[in-house]
Every structure is written in C-alpha cells, then in structure tokens.
User: Fold Shikimate dehydrogenase from Rothia mucilaginosa.
Amino acid sequence: MPTESYREAPSMRRAYVLGHPIDHSLSPALHRAAYAYLGEANLGYDRRDTLPDDLPTIMHRVRHPKGTEDAPYIAGLSVTMPLKTAVIKYCDELSETARVTGAVNTVYPRGEKVLGDNTDVIGIVNALLHAGLEPHPERDEPAVIGGGATAISALTALHQLGYRCVSVYARSLHKLGDLQAVAEHLGVQLSIVALAEFPAEQKARRHNPVISTLPARAADDWAPQLTDPAGAPGAAVRPVLLDVAYNPWPSVLASAWEASGGAVVSGLEMLLYQAVEQVLLFTDRTLQPAELLGLINAMCEAVGLPSREHLPAPLAE
Assistant:
C-alpha cells in the first residue's frame, strides 16, 4: 500500500458502500454531497453489492491499488450487512469502538495499514443529542429494543453517554450472549426482559431514552399499546425514542410514541452522523466547527433532512 497521504495520492480515488442488498442505500447521496461541499472533485462514491465471499478480492484492491479506473485508489469503504463482522479479519488495526462492539462499518487505508472503525456508535450518540436528549444517568434508565449487532452498538452508545444501567427487550432471550459480554466489558448492568413486556414496562418505568434496533415494521403489532410513554400530562421530560429503521417513516412505533407525548428521531439521523465520521476519516480532514456544520447541512439537504443551526455536543468539542 502506498504511504503517501490522502491528498498526495494519485487523483483516481473511489469510496464504496458494500453490502447485500444495497440498492436502497442512501450512503451515496450523503457522501457525494459531502465531497462536493469539500471540493473533493476526484473522489467518487458508489454502491457495490457485496457478499462475504467477495471480500478477498475487494480488500486486495484496497491494499494494492493501481490508480486506474479498474483498480482505483480506495479512500474508504462503508460496510453494512452482512459484512460488519466478516470484514474484521482484513483489517490491520481496529478502533477501540470496533473492538468492543465486534463490528466494523468503516474501513480506510492509512499508509501501509488498513484500519477498521464502527461509526454507528457515534451516529447513535449524535442522533439522540440532536433529538434533544439531555443525559441524566443518575435519574433515567434507558432501554434497547432488540438483541442483535445494532443493539450492541446502541448499548455502547448509551455507555458513552454515561449510562451504567440499561434494560434490553428482546424476543430470543437465550441469544444475547454477545450483548451480555459487551455489557460486562463496559461495566453496564443489564436488565433483560421479554419483548412482549415492553409496552407495560415502559408505562411503569418510563425508560429514557429508548433505542429500537428492530427491522422496519417489526414493532407494528404492539406499538399501538404505547399509551403513555411520556408519563403524566405536562411532564417536564419528554422521553426520546430513536427508531433505527427509517423506511417507511414515520414508523408505527414512532407515530405511537409521538402521539403519546414523546420525542422521536429516525434512523436517518443516525445514518447521517455515522456518515459524517466516515467522510472525515476517508478524507483525513479535521474541520473547524463552522465548516463542519456546513458539511452536515449539505448532507442533510441531499437526503431531505432539515438543516441545523448547531452541532451536537461531541462534534462541537
């Protein structure tokens, strides 16, 4: 792998989103808008339908680019299902977040090394803060709905926000070994409850925030039972729900939550903020706050999200 820096490399550069299926991905719209804003005219971004068996060839090209149309220099890879664990063995180093979660959604070269990261976690953190969440770990207990790989990222995000006790609602309670191992590593106390119990438990316990990692429509049957997520009328705190699924939007779950007085944020905000981190890694840039806000708003416009006037706290620091 060449050792020259990103901006000194030959002009033929590409980044890709890998996964299967991939036709629905909004990542190209986000990344292309970002690179246009940054003036990265020679950096393209495309979808590439990819299964685990395709990874050896792709990762060989990451390590041995020729700077040609067929074998361009790779600025980075956005990695989605079913590749987030399969790609790990092709990385020389992992970020701490990727190591903890056991998942990589971001691959990029630095010098002679290929690095792996998980920007889903900071995507969740910033989506929650954008929705108005004010973390109060000493007062509130958050909840995660679902027990798969995204639930592990959600748990890690809650840990970064300061929470040390989290309830997890899942169908297959016997399949939560990976989630429990991550919780133990982070020092987070888990309360594991059957998914069917969530509406009644939410009414009694008023979790805040709540992160649903379920697939689209998976909550449609029980979501209308959420009659009181916000507690008593006029309550000072509106519990925040992040529904990672964003198509269709609003989801039945989000509509029921909002109708009962809670605040909702779609998974498209998570997708936005995880992509912001990828753009900075792929271009090896550090932006000043005003330029970073401009970048985010350019990306928002590309996918129909409202513009924003300020950065979430982690980005503003």
Notes: The first helix runs from residue 27 to 38.
